[in-house]
């Protein structure tokens, strides 16, 4: 477990070094939504314990909503 933790810390350090903090990307976990910045990836690094714990509650703080007619929207 300790070796895994040290290895993960090295991966995170390299990830931060190699990526621009204002990056944008599409990730499979985001289900087609545009990811802006590194907070999304930090969430996955921080919660990669390898064990299934209690369900994690996620709150969208700044969603981009596009109205698609009178009865629909794309978030």
UniProtKB/TrEMBL annotation:
Domain annotation Calcium/calmodulin-dependent protein kinase II association-domain: ranges: 13-75
A Pfam family that the UniProt record links to this protein: CaMKII_AD
GO molecular function: calcium/calmodulin-dependent protein kinase activity; calmodulin binding
Gene3D superfamilies named in the record: 3.10.450.50
N-terminal signal peptide: none
Stated name of the protein: CaMKII_AD domain-containing protein
Protein species of origin: Brugia timori
Lineage: Eukaryota, Metazoa, Ecdysozoa, Nematoda, Chromadorea
């Amino acid at each position: 477990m300790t070796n895994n933790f040290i290895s993960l810390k090295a991966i995170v350090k390299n990830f931060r070094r190699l990526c621009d903090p204002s990056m944008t990307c599409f990730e499979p976990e985001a289900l087609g939504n545009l990811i802006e910045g590194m907070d999304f990836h930090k969430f996955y690094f921080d919660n990669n314990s390898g064990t299934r714990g209690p369900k994690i509650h996620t709150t969208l703080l700044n969603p981009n909503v596009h109205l698609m007619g009178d009865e629909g929207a794309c978030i």
